[in-house]
Write a structure and sequence with these properties.
Helix content is 84%, strand content 0%. It is mainly α and 108 residues long. Helix 2 packs across helix 4, helix 3 packs across helix 5 and helix 4 runs antiparallel to helix 5. The longest helix is centred in the last third of the chain and has 36 residues. The chain starts with a helix and ends with a helix. 3% of the residues are buried.
Length: 108
């Protein structure tokens, strides 16, 4: 078992900071500017709303995993079954291909 789950230093606040850090990325902000040029005000509002929604979902998923003492993949399997787990894996693969593409564009 991972030492992360056995440590007593991992409060809900600490875990929420980890999830917040994973949610904020330059790649997704750049993707938004390529796909939907909304302007500064509307763009920041869309980013803020998207991060709040995504952060809540990821935070709740993290709580499920912490309570069950399992990884994110295992908690998805518990919540959505085998088909749901495969679906989330495929969506994650597509997202990572897109992330790589945007990072390549930024670096070029």
């Amino acid at each position: 078992m991972s030492t992360f789950f056995t440590s007593t230093n991992n409060s809900s606040f600490n875990v929420s900071l980890i999830w917040f850090g994973t949610a904020v990325s330059v790649a997704e902000i750049m993707t938004g500017t390529f796909l939907a040029p909304l302007g500064m005000k509307d763009g920041f509002l869309a980013i803020l709303v998207g991060h709040v929604i995504g952060g809540i979902i990821l935070y709740l998923a993290g709580i499920i995993g912490a309570n069950k003492r399992c990884s994110a993949s295992e908690s998805i399997n518990l919540s959505f079954g085998k088909l749901g787990s495969v679906s989330f894996s495929l969506l994650n693969t597509i997202q990572l291909i897109g992330w790589t593409s945007i990072m390549t564009i930024i670096g070029a």
